[in-house]
Amino acid sequence: MGATKTDHFTDHQNQIAIICKALGHPARVAIIEYLLKVDTCICGDIVNELPLAQATVSQHLKELKNAGLIKGNIEGTAICYCIDKEAFGILKDYFSNIVLSVKDQKCC
């Protein structure tokens, strides 16, 4: 089978793209902001915070978890979600390098 388009890029480039894609929806950004505000959360709490159906919120949580932005632990019949600090550390390093490079760059 042939190479996929992602095979032409480094693991780090693919990782950044996956994370950024997961953050590319305002509902997911709202979920991240809510989790930061409350520190930890149960799925039902998130559903009460957003103007979306429970199934839609669950799908957004799945995308965030697949991208490594959040973690989820089963507690009884609910899942407790929290921020995955490692993924945000990767983003911080990536965007910090961009800011420093742009700051020092001379452009027309």
What's the gist of this structure?
The protein is 60% helix and 13% strand. It has 108 residues and is of the alpha+beta class.
Characteristics:
single chain, 108 residues, alpha+beta, Arc Repressor Mutant, subunit A, 3-stranded antiparallel beta sheet, 5 helices, 60% helix, DNA-binding transcription factor activity, DNA-binding
Give the secondary structure arrangement, pairings included.
Layout (H helix, E strand, L loop, with lengths): L10 H12 L3 H13 L2 E2 H7 L4 H13 L3 E6 L2 E6 L1 H20 L4
Antiparallel strand pairs: 1-3, 2-3
In words, what does this structure look like?
By secondary structure, the chain is α+β, with helices and mostly antiparallel strands. The chain has one domain: Winged helix-like DNA-binding domain superfamily/Winged helix DNA-binding domain (Arc Repressor Mutant, subunit A). It is 60% helix and 13% strand. It contains five helices and three strands. It has helices spanning 11-22, 26-38, 43-49, 54-66, 85-104; strands spanning 41-42, 70-75, 78-83. It has a three-stranded antiparallel sheet with strand order 1-3-2. The radius of gyration is 17 Å and the shape is elongated. The chain starts with 10 loop residues before the first helix and ends with a helix. The model has no long low-confidence stretch (mean pLDDT 88).
